[in-house]
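Worked example 3 (structure in, sequence out).
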């Protein structure tokens, strides 16, 4: 019984991330169609839209099902909201560190291929 809420929360998180990635693919294909890409998604925009629609479907089912079957506030929602609050607390705590890093240093840390080889 305890594994279901954890799986439900994981599906909510992964479907949300997958939806955002697919949305980014579609937006980049529309706004910058000529930009060179090291990997091309088969099907292009259609695949991205299909990914968005399937993610939304899984989100609706995963969010709705615990509510229909629960007597009170669903455990999946509590776990998700708890993780969201914890993430926001960590984000707020790290804001000073983020502000101390200059934009060129941030780009070097994120995009430098020499430091990211492992």
């Amino acid at each position: 019984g305890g594994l279901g809420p954890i799986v439900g929360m994981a599906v909510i998180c992964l479907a949300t991330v997958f939806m955002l990635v697919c949305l980014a693919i579609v937006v980049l294909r529309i706004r910058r169609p000529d930009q060179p890409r090291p990997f091309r998604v088969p099907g292009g925009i259609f695949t991205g839209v299909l990914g968005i629609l399937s993610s939304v479907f899984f989100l609706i089912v995963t969010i709705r099902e615990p509510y229909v079957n629960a007597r009170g506030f669903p455990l999946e929602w509590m776990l998700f909201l708890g993780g969201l609050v914890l993430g926001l607390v960590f984000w707020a705590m790290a804001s000073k560190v983020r502000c101390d890093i200059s934009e060129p240093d941030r780009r070097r840390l994120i995009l430098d291929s020499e430091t990211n080889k492992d």
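Notes: DSSP finds five helices and no strands in the chain. The radius of gyration is 19 Å.
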